[in-house]
Each structure stands twice: as structure tokens, then as C-alpha cells.
Fold each of these.
Amino acid sequence: MVELSVQAVLGLIGMIILVGLAGEWIFKKTGVPSVLILIGLGIVLGPGFHLLDHHAITAFAPYFGTLALLIILFDGGLNLKIVKVLRETPFALLFTTLVFAATAVTSALIYRTLFGGTWTIAFLLGAILGGTTGAIVIPVVSQLKGISDETKVLLSLESAFTDVFVVVAALALIGILKNPSAGVSSMAPMVFHSFLDAILLAGLAGILWARFMGMLQGQPLSYMLTLAAILVLYNIAELVGGNGAITILLFGLVLGNMEEIITKSHRHIKRVVGLNLEAASYAIDVFLKRLNEEISFLVRTFFYVLLGLIFDLGALTPLVTIGGLLLFAAAWGSRWGVTRAMAFLKPAWNAKERRIIVAMIPRGLAAAVMAFVPASQGITGTESFPLFALLIIGFSVLYMTVALYAEQRQSPSPAK
């Protein structure tokens, strides 16, 4: 490992941020996701030039991964208008559920066949790899030509839903694995109460914090207060037996939707309890949302670079590489099969739309972060999960890029 001076480390941090910003610009101009650039940069800095100690970074990764997960979940909840989503697009929820379940099952079958282990561990990996990523899908979908707005909504909502699916399913299975003496039937009430506690805690904290933020609109350091609240709330949720990650997701969801909820329900609340609530008192500062997007970008950038830094070339055996390819094939085949089946309910889907739906398969931050969690929780047999997550992220992003490029070549945009 090369010894780095303080100024060299600071310069390296600045370079990573600049590469992340350049990657975002390239993404907007060409549709090539920055994740490949960032992971590649990490591989160059780590396994390539050995600038950072692999074991030190690996030990640090679960902590940074948990922080990244909390910020990304909070950002997802803050920007998800769940009432409108569930009312207008139930088909998206059905499609998402079927694709996620099919991917998890087929991935579990492949992993257990090739690498052994228990079914629970196999299904855990399947759940981690089961969902797409909104950070890539949503910007790409917004630029796509030749598909209906309905299909764009479907793909965007799927990517938002699957982040939740990945986290919920993975954490539930981790809870079962951490208590192997308890059967699945006895674990079910424990998991239920864990999520119920998370809902109650997030609801109460969200209402109180939305009111507090309404009082502090325009005040400095409001985001730092919110970030501190996220970390403290996560700790409290874990201490009382709730699910910390889901608590933060729901906390963001309550904050992001509180103004609309108050607007629609204040008359009923006034009639029942005599309180006349003003929606403006619960409004979240636009600046806070923008700052959270900036922090989310920063966290994503460094986490993808960290993935490349800890990439273990020695662990990339032929069997692991074949396993990664087969896991990607399982994800692709599941998506293709569900899309073909659901096309009977959507006769408006032409061949091009079906190909694009199948192409929107990229995995991202949720899979990468959750891949670190089982090993950090002391669950044996999951140490290779980050490597598989990295392989699937790379394969899926490359496939999407090539497939969409091929679609553009077949159907070029009309000349202006």
C-alpha cells in the first residue's frame, strides 16, 4: 500500500467528487450511467495501484454502507408521493411484485445449486439482487423516445418500489438468520412487530419533526438537525426492537407527504378534536430537499468508488464469474417472462416497449449496500455477497446501455 500525505488524500477526495460530477454530466448527455465510471475508478485506485488498504476499507464499508442506506432511504421516502402512486398505478405494484419474486426465487435456486448453503441464505441473496435502481432508471426513462407515458410511469414506479422491497425482504431474512433456533413460524410475529414498531415510531417522529421543520423554515443548519434526527431515530428504532432502516424510509415518507395529508384532513381533524391545522406549518423547506439530494449524490459517489476499492480480484474465480453471469441471466429471464405474461393485460405494449421494459434492469445502491449488511451482522456464508452484487450491477448496467443503444440504432430519432 502506498503511503499518502494529507494533501494527497484531500486531492483524491476532490478528484472523486469531480469524477462523480463528470459522470452525472455524461449520464445526462449519453445515457451511460456514472456507476460504471465510479466503480472503475475505485478498481484503479484500489486493486490497481493499491493506494488504500483493502482490509481497512472492507472493515469500514459496513459503517459507511449503513449511513448511505439511511440517507438514500430518507431521500426516497421524502420524494415519494405514495398516496397518489398507489391510487393511480396499481398495475405497477403488481408488475414490481411479480418481477421481484421471480428474480429472488430463480437467483436463490442458482446460488444454492452452485455454492450450496441454506435456502434462507440463498433467498437472502435473491432478495438483495431482486430490484432495479431509481437512481439510474428514472433519469434514463425520462429521456426515452418511442414509448408511452404509461410505460415510463410503470418503470419509474417499479424502481421506487423495489428499493423498498429489497430492504424489507433482506432485513426480514436477516432477522430469521440471526435467530436460527427460532423457526420461521415463530419469527413471523417478531418480524411483524418489528415493522409495526417502525411504522408507529416513524409516524410519530415524522409528525413532530414536520411541525418542527415548519417552524424552522429558512433557518440555517436545519438539514444538519434533520440528519442528526435520522441517526438518532435509527438508533432508537433498533433499541426498541423496530426496524431501523424501514423507520427512516417511513420517516422520510411522512415528512414528504405531511403537507398534503394535513391539507386533505384538517377539516376532519378540526371536527373531531377541535384543532385547525395549517398545512404551511408542516411544510418541508425546498432547500432541505435540495440539500438532501446533494448529500445523496455525495454518498452515492463515494460508495460506488468504495465498491471498486474493495473489489477482490483474487476472489474472482471462474466459478464466481460464471455464477455472476447466471445470476444476471436469472434476473433477465425473470423480467422477460413476467413482461411477456403481463403483456396479455397490456395489449398496447408493442415489441419495442417490451424490449425496453426488459432492458431497464440495472441494479444499484440498494443492492450494493444491503450486500454488506449480512456479513456485518455476523451471518456466516454471506461474505461473498458484495462481490456478487458488484458483478450484477456491472452486468445489468452494461446490458441496459447496450440494449438501449441498439434500440436507438434500429429506431433513430427523426431529423430536426
Amino acid sequence: KTEFDLCNFNVENLFDHIDDGGGDWGDWAPGYPNPESTAGQVQYLAKIAELAPVFVTDLKSCMIVGVEEVEGKQKVYNDLATAVSDLDAGHTWMGVYVESGDGRDISQGFLYRDDVALVAVNEVTGQPYSDWVDDGKLDFRRVMPHGQFRLFADTDDEIDIHFYVAHFKSKRSSRLCDTVDCTDIREKEAADMRDILKHHQAEGEGEGEGEYAIGGGDFNDVIGSTPINILDDSKDLYNLFYDLPEKKRWSYVFSGESEVLDHMYVTANLRPSTPGWSQSFSAVHVHADFPSDERASDHDPVRTRFSRCRALSAPSSLKVSINDVANGVDLSWDNDADGASTSVWESANPHFNPNPATDTPLGASGSTSYTHANSTGNATSNHFYVITTVNPCDGSSAISNRVGEFDFALTSGT
């Protein structure tokens, strides 16, 4: 059984204090309008110092983090990765991005740990991506990065994850849009994301489970909107926010109203109902509802911890022996099942069947014996036992043979 986690985080305008002449200089940059000023550098470094603990402490050193709203410059990604590495005693971090084509030089990319292998990172432009979408045309306003990451390389648990980080068109009006809030653009972006994830889900079907893919980021639209409905209507992907109760579905606060802007979609072969997989998803409420001068970002990150269990056959039923010891009984058995744990069940009914959902075992997980002290010597209280075994993939054995102890009350002369 293996576990890994992936996250998304809009870090809100992480720009350095240098004017590179690429559209990256304006009132979003620290020190504006005085490029390369000492005051601007102080602001930039302070921003990174606020962000770094979120990656290590709040996101639990999440293995791969898709990031949005970072200046399209490798040095900025490197500076953030270095700051995270300085706080993470167990790992060194790297950053990578692709050029987005954004007029302000806003980009998306990844931060990832040194125990994760980056197989490839590509711009989602042209072929083969355009061949995967229904209309043959990619409509992302900011070019997405596609990262292929390998986890647990060179082990039996090796797995490749395809990760796309999106930052959809904002609701700010534009002459490029047909609607006032540019919903038409986000609808096209959502359709493209749907089709790309659908491609990975279909890849290799018939031979296996398909490829594992995730599309996450700042989609700039809420649950129930038409762009999000386009994604939700596909059977090939799943929004992990639906694993949370409605009142906990938020990552952003606008005019006092909490809402989801930062979505994480997984291909259907990763969703919670898939055999062998389980997930724990959460929006990590760090700063989004703090005053603007007390937060590192106006968005909260989201995190998913995936658990994968390779198929294991159910363990065989155990044979248990019972022997008396002082004022009690000693149970023993052999347990050679792969990584299996055992449970000892007890009842006054000699023909009982344990129900793990409602009954509590006596114990003995991972052991091959159990002593039930002070269980003998009372004719009104007899004890019967069975043993069950569960392997790491939750495969359960049948119950063992039944053993027990009972006491006779002897009355003189009868």
C-alpha cells in the first residue's frame, strides 16, 4: 500500500522586483515604479518567506504542487524552491514552468520534491494536444504546463501521473470575449481540459486502467457555473471538491462570500470509487479569509492524499489453538499472510460471528498470540473466540476455527 499527495496553489502575483521588459512590470510587482529598488527586493523576499511555510507546514511538504500566478521566469521559481528547501529538512525542492504567453507574464508551473522524477514538462500547444480536443483547437488563454511525474521509481509501486496546471481567463471584461464576464472563454477552456483528461482516461483502456491524469488550478469560476458544468458532465473525470460537505467547499472569498475557484479534477481511474484507490481531499484554509495585509495569497491551496493498494488475494483462514494459563487463556496461531493484521474476537455465544462494523476486537493486530487474562474460574461467564485476518488492501479472511473455555459449578452431593 503506497501513499502520495498532490496540491494546487495560486500564490497571488509572485513577481520579483526587476523589470525584465516582458510585460512583468506594473502595480503588481514589488517596488513599482522603481525597478530593482532595495525596498522592492525586501517586499519580494518577504513574500517568498510568507509562502514557503505554506508548502512545508500547511501542505505537509506535498510531493508535487501546481502553482499559479508566478512571474514567467525560472529564477522566481528557483527562489521559491530554495526557500521551501531551506525549511524542509527532509527534501530538496525544484521548480519548473512553461511560458504562458500572458501579457503580464503570469505563468503556471510546478514545485516538486527530490524523491519525485520529472519525466517531462511540455507546453500544451499544438499537436498532440490539439488532436485530443473535439474541435481541434486549443483555447487556453494562458498556455498550460503538462508535467509527467514518476513516483516510487524502480519499485513495484512505480506510477506515472500526468499533471496539468490551469489558470483560466478571469471574469474581467475583454474585447476578446463575447460575454461581459468572459464566460464564453472559460467554457472553451473547460471543454479543452475535459477532452485532454478524457484522452488520458481512454489511453490504454482494454489493456489496463488508462493513464492517470489530474487537471487543477485556478479556474476562475464556481461550482454550478456553465464552465464547471462542462467538466462535471463528463463521466471520465471527477471534481474532488464533491467529496467535501457543501459548507466546506470553498477556497476563495469574494465580497464576503466563500466560493470554489481552485478546482482539482482527476481521471475516473483515480476517483474514490475505483477499486484499489482511496483519496483524502481538502481545501487547506490558510489565508484566503485573512485581511489582505496579513496573508501570503488571496487563494487557499488544495491538497489530495492518494492511497493505492496493489491487488492482494484475501488471506487464508487461520487455525487457532487455546491453552489455559493462570486465571486465563492463551490463544496462538500462525500468520504468514503478506503484511496482514489479525483481530481476536470474543463472545459468550459459542456460535457468534463478529461484525467489524459494530464490534470491537480484543486486539492482537500484527501478533501471533493473545492472552485473555482473568477469563476463567467463573461458571456464569464463559468465553468463546475466533480470529480474522485483514491484508493491507482490506482483503479479509474467513473466520478461524472456534475455541473457548467454560467452567462447571460443582455442588457437593449432586
